[in-house]
Every structure is written in C-alpha cells, then in structure tokens.
Specification:
Layout lengths: L1 E4 L4 H12 L6 E3 L7 H11 L1 H4 L5 H5 L2 H4 L4 H10 L8 E4 L2 E4 L3 H10 L2
Parallel strand pairs: 1-2
Antiparallel strand pairs: 1-3, 3-4
C-alpha cells in the first residue's frame, strides 16, 4: 500500500488524515522529492487512463503549450508527467494491485475490507 502525492496538497492531506483516522499506516511517496519511475506511471495509465490521471484543471496544465496539452503518445505523456509531476491528479493510492486517483474513501474502504 502506498499513497502518492505532494505533501502540501490539501487533498493529499485530507487523504492521509482519512487513513490515519482509521489506524491505517499508509506509506507516503512524495512525487516531487521522491520522484517517480516511468514503469510506475505506465502501470497507472494502464489502470486508470490518461483522462483520469492527468490533472487538466491546475495551473501546471494551463502553463503548458497547446502542443504539450495535445500529447496522446504514451511515451511522450510519461516523459511530460515525469518532468511535471504536479500534472498528476492526487492522490494516487495503491492498495494491493488496485490503483485509485483522487479522494475516494468509499473505494478505499471497500478495497481494504476485501483485503486487496
């Protein structure tokens, strides 16, 4: 189990508090300071898709060029997300093999109950 995010993100803080409030020790991986591997990003993209994973409402997205915003090639998208980790919608939570994106406590509860 791992919670991926950026430590000063409000949604990440709320998510970490949700797990802590249930006595669940959730390892935290900071996308900025700890980095991320391309194979992990590819796994996330395969699991949830680019439409769910890429944060298109933030300031980082708005600062991209139209060409960058139009990227559909997986290799180019992975390179962009590695260079700009704040483009990743947060938090990304891995529980077993399951990947979730965003604050989804009902889904986390179901996954934890199922022992995924």
């Amino acid at each position: 189990m791992t919670l991926y995010g950026i430590k000063n993100c409000d949604t990440v803080k709320k998510s970490r508090a949700w797990f802590a409030g249930r006595g669940i020790e959730m390892p935290f991986h900071d996308l900025r300071s700890d980095g991320l591997q391309a194979d992990v990003l590819r796994r996330w993209l395969a699991a949830v898709g680019a439409a769910r994973l890429v944060n298109r409402s933030g300031t980082t997205w708005r600062a991209l060029t139209p060409t960058q915003q139009a990227i559909t090639d997986e290799d180019a998208l992975v390179a962009l997300l590695l260079a700009q980790p704040t483009l990743i919608r947060r938090p990304v939570v891995q529980i077993g093999e399951a990947i979730t994106v965003g604050f989804v406590p009902d889904t986390w509860a179901d996954l934890l109950e199922a022992g995924t």
